[in-house]
């Protein structure tokens, strides 16, 4: 070392001084880097806070002005008379001229304005003058020419993440404020083509990555059945609007239960189509670009008949012409009205996530209905279900290790149900690996595996492996169905009814009965069956098995859940949505579930 230093004109004393100062120098460099990052974060936070406050004030003024306007255009009694009508009765009255599109629009606008004060499901109202002009244009169409307009005069609600001309879809993320869509997406265009009238945009959770429904721009939406309970997400605003009677039909989206979770928790119906059956253009997603598990838009409604009507219009030339990537698959009415007995696999328990007494009862009621209709209901267990839920799904959804999400939320106000996930995702890669190494040894495998998603996919080669793994998994499951002669599956929509608002960040396992069908890309729908009773909650106190801390929290949340709605989930093979709808209609017709509006 001495000779080396002498070559550069240095002595051993200089080397010792440098060595001794290294800890101080390193600490100084680290302090500078951390200070620089902190300054950048504070600047970003301050800038975004100003932008967010401006938008919040604009939305507040827009909603106040809109509500003040629509409340004066129709009486409460007339509004209630119209909004209380069932979908088919409402549609027939419109098409036959017994009701005008304008008065129906005003009835639902008034209902939405009133109910939003309690539940906060409106992200932003659409320009009422534009909606009224559309209604007047429809009213000018002769009754004899209305039959082909399957949604003539029906007011519809639209999830905030659906791009609409002149409006900003930001998913509750402040950094996305400012840009507006140049045109409506194909789904909204098709709805309008068939006579529907969009009139409000509905709330979503921040970045669409929660089954709660809260963000720093539009606030929190609560469950109309019980405002201390969650309405679900990410299509929570849609579900709340339909549940309280402010809408009969809307558009949501689903990548991990986002249509089905809120529908199950609010007592409405929804269909998650096969990804690709509907156009995906203009459908926002925080992880757009990953193709292992694709998001899909889908209808949500007060009745299965409304879902059927929506799928009819989404399966037409109008849709195919607006997006050439959509398969030209017309609606299969023969499958819908078929009386052929089916073999239905029944999933009662996935082996990991306990199901509440009320949800078990709903399954039994639905199974009995289907059996009485001549179908054969057999026990079924989805292969590798735990692996699918804890490894395949999270690995695909956050394959970038949360990089995109961190970019979007840098400096933003992060909502309570997102904070824990964001803390993990924002850690340096080496820290993530170290924590997962520890978690793997101290936590149950199904929990440690879910946390590993924070690491993302390590390389392009690993991404290829994951893609192939999921393709093989889908093939094996379809082979299982073929070998067992299964035509459809009946499963819990959710393992528990709507949870308390405070529990959402802590019980991510509730999605376990929904995510496999996203991974498999099988269509699935939710239909309400019954309500939680005092007998159900009493039985849960002793029978609900809590095998980990998440399920312990879920068990506590079952207390006080009396009266909440409970639904079931029906699943069919890819591109067989009509079979799902057929079975959903059979269950709906037999159980005679009373929606929330029946109690108001």
Features:
15 strands; 11-stranded mixed sheet; globular; two-stranded antiparallel sheet; alpha/beta; about 600 residues; Amidase signature (AS) enzymes
Describe this structure in words.
Helix 13 (357-372) crosses helix 23, helix 14 (385-397) runs parallel beside helix 18 and helix 17 runs antiparallel to helix 18. The protein has two domains: 1-70; 71-329 and 344-387 and 467-599, Amidase signature (AS) enzymes, CATH 3.90.1300. The strands form three sheets. Strands 1-3-2-8-10-9-14-15-13-11-12 form an eleven-stranded mixed sheet, with helices on both faces. It has a two-stranded antiparallel sheet with strand order 4-5. Helices cover 48% and strands 12% of the residues. 49% of the residues are buried. The protein has helices at residues 2-7, 12-70, 76-83, 87-95, 101-119, 128-139, 186-193, 236-243, 260-266, 304-314, 317-322, 333-337, 357-372, 385-397, 403-409, 416-425, 429-442, 445-451, 460-484, 515-520, 534-543, 549-557, 577-591; strands at 122-125, 155-159, 197-202, 214-215, 219-220, 222-223, 226-230, 249-254, 269-272, 296-301, 343-346, 376-379, 488-492, 524-531, 565-572. Strand 4 (214-215) and strand 5 form a beta hairpin. The model has no long low-confidence stretch (mean pLDDT 93). The chain is of the alpha/beta class and 600 residues long.
Strand order of the largest sheet: 1-3-2-8-10-9-14-15-13-11-12
Shape: globular
Number of helices: 23
Report strand %: 5-15%
CATH 4th-level superfamily of the largest domain: Amidase signature (AS) domain
Gyration radius from CA atoms, angstroms:
26 Å
Under CATH at level 1, the class of the largest domain stands as: Alpha Beta
Largest sheet: 11 strands, mixed
Uncertain residue ranges: none
Q: Helical residue percent?
A: 40-55%
């Amino acid at each position: 070392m001495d000779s080396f230093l002498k070559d550069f004109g240095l002595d051993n004393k200089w080397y010792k001084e440098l060595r001794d100062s290294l800890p101080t120098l390193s600490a100084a460099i680290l302090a500078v880097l951390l200070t620089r990052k902190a300054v950048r974060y504070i600047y970003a936070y301050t800038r975004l806070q100003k932008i967010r406050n401006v938008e919040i004030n604009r939305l507040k003024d827009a909603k106040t002005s809109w509500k003040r306007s629509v409340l004066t255009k129709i009486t409460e009694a007339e509004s209630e008379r119209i909004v209380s009508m069932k979908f088919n009765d409402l549609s027939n009255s419109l098409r036959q001229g017994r009701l005008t599109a304008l008065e129906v629009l005003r009835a639902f606008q008034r209902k939405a304005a009133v109910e939003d004060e309690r539940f906060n499901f409106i992200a932003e109202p659409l320009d009422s003058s534009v909606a009224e002009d559309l209604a007047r244009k429809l009213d000018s169409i002769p009754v004899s020419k209305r039959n082909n307009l399957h949604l003539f005069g029906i007011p519809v609600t639209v999830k905030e993440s659906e791009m609409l001309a002149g409006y900003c879809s930001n998913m509750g993320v402040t950094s996305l404020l400012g840009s507006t869509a140049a045109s409506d997406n194909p789904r909204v265009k098709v709805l309008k083509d068939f006579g529907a009238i969009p009139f409000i945009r509905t709330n979503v959770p921040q970045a669409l990555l929660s089954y709660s429904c809260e963000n720093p721009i539009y606030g929190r939406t609560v469950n109309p059945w019980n405002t201390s309970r969650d309405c679900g997400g990410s299509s929570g605003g849609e579900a709340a609007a339909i549940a309280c009677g402010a809408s009969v039909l809307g558009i949501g989206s689903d990548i991990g239960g986002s249509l089905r979770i809120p529908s199950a928790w609010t007592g409405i119906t929804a269909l998650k189509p096969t990804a690709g059956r509907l156009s995906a253009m203009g459908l926002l997603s925080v992880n757009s670009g990953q193709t292992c598990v694709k998001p899909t838009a889908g209808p949500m409604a007060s009745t299965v008949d409304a879902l059927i009507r929506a799928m009819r219009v989404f399966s037409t030339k109008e849709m195919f012409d607006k997006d050439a990537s959509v398969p030209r698959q017309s609606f299969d009415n023969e499958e819908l009205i078929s009386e052929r007995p089916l073999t239905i696999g029944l999933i009662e328990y996935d082996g990991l996530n306990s199901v509440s007494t009320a949800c078990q009862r709903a399954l039994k009621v639905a199974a009995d209905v289907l059996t009485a209709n001549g179908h054969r209901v057999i026990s079924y267990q989805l292969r590798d279900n735990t692996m699918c839920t804890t490894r395949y799904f999270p690995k695909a959804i956050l394959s970038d290790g949360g990089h995109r999400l961190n970019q979007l939320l840098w400096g933003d106000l992060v909502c309570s149900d997102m904070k824990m996930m964001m803390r993990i995702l924002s850690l340096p890669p080496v820290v993530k690996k170290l924590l997962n190494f520890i978690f793997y040894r101290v936590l149950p495998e199904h929990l440690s595996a879910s946390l590993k998603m924070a690491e993302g996919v390590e390389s392009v080669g690993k991404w290829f492996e994951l893609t192939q793994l999921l393709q093989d998994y889908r093939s094996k499951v379809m082979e299982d169905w073929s070998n067992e002669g299964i035509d459809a599956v009946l499963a819990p929509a959710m393992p528990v009814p709507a949870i308390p608002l405070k529990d959402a960040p802590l019980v991510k396992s509730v999605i376990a009965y929904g995510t496999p069908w996203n991974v498999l890309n099988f269509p699935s729908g939710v239909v309400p069956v019954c309500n939680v009773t005092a007998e159900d909650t009493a039985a849960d106190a002793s029978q609900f098995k809590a095998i980990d801390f998440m399920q312990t929290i879920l068990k506590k949340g079952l207390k006080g859940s009396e009266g909440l709605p409970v639904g079931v989930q029906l699943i069919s093979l890819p591109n067989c949505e009509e079979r799902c709808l057929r079975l959903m209609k059979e269950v709906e017709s037999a159980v005679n579930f009373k929606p929330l509006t029946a109690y108001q």
